[in-house]
Amino acid sequence: MNNLSVDHLLGIKYLEKSDIELIFKTADNFKKIISQPIKKVPSLRDITIANLFFENSTRTKLSFELAEKRLSADIINFSSVSSSIKKGETLLDTVNNILAMKVDIVVIRHPNPGASVFLSRNIDAKIINAGDGTHEHPTQALLDSYSIREKYGEVKGKKIVVIGDILHSRVALSNIFCLRKLGAEVRVCGPSSLMPKNLESLQVEHFSDLKEALEWCDVANVLRIQLERQDVNYFPSLREYAMVYGIDKNVLDGLKKDITIMHPGPINRGVELSSDVADSSHSIILDQVENGVAIRMAVLYLLAGKIKLN
Amino acid sequence: MIEERQILNKESIQIIIERLCHQLIENHNNFENTVLVGIQPRGRYLSNRILSQLNMINPLNIIESGNVDISFYRDDLMRRENPILPEEMDMNLSVEGKRVVLIDDVLYTGRSVRSAIDALMTFGRPTSVELLILIDRRFSRHLPIQSDYVGRTVNAIDSEKVIVEWKEVAGKDRVLMRKEE
User: Fold this and answer.
1) Fewest CB atoms less than 10 Å from the CB: which of A23, A136, A138, B125?
2) Could you say which architecture CATH assigns to the domain B2-180?
3) pLDDT confidence of A85, banded at 50, 70, 90?
């Protein structure tokens, strides 16, 4: 297989296993390129990319921008904080206006689940979902699985537990799809109030006990409590959450084995992870960030290959 | 209908490689400041042959070498049916101040060589870059690029394909011209 089966990256759900493997193989090459003295390649010189961020983002936005620049694309950035959305423009109008500037690829983050799917049906550009509400965040899941593959050689057969606010997390859902497709075992852990109702239909098992979950897994992917998405109180206090589900050095030392700690960022230090764990040798958090650029370069390169000039 | 004819066999390929090596020695002496760089994927095979032949002629010379992958430096990503999948960028060296010999099996439009020069420049500024080619397809250049060392020149029209087969991948060394009608 030397081409993606999809025309857009809307979610891991829509990808074949062979697509994920192709992205990983391409990312391996880009990882080498970005360690060269000159990290820029001219592949996307004819391409214009719009980064539309209707929701706050630091690392995803920077990572996409860096990937695009390393591929020599022209980029325009848009963030809803300083835009005409506040003046009442619809999503489709905003995007169509931007497309009139001859944009080939749109990277979009939006608070509404399905925003990227909606765009892909209505406009003529390649769409990359950079997070749509509580739905999916495919590039994050790809870089998470890629980092596990880098650490262990392969993802197949590994046991991964996703810990924390599963209910509000697009990272969790995309991770579950991605790891499953690659043959890993995935379970989740956290307070029952933060578990989605569809866990059973996803056939994902749930640990309510943190220690039990950590004893089971090879890798713990720890998520942030998304206070900004919580409209009601799902647990008594952050302090109590940290006491029951926070991972610190004592918790790790109490395990019978070594596990790997991942976190998609931003970390709330002292809540889900203590500083001594986040900065320890167990953590591959900074590798995830580095791999994020290579993964995004691979996705952009492969999707751009689907654009036909002439 | 596919029409196929052999233009080089194992023995003639070997004779050509020996001659190319002697031409290289004539210009590069003991290869002190020279780097041989194969263009991935197919230039690598010729580059390896040249290296082992040079080593047979003078085992005392230590010759620096690498293989450059040009996938990300090409100009046709959006003009092909499928994207080219990259090979390994095997360049654990700097070409700064070096005399580089680029090596590929077939010189056709010259676009691969153009990409290879771009890719090469990301590893430093070489003093000079030369080109060594096994088969030079005359009359089909899109860019003003010529080779400095030529194995065999052939006249081939666009509907003809030149296929270089190496023992390592195809079981035997030979060069074919294939015409599809």
Assistant:
1) B125
2) 3-Layer(aba) Sandwich (3.40)
3) low
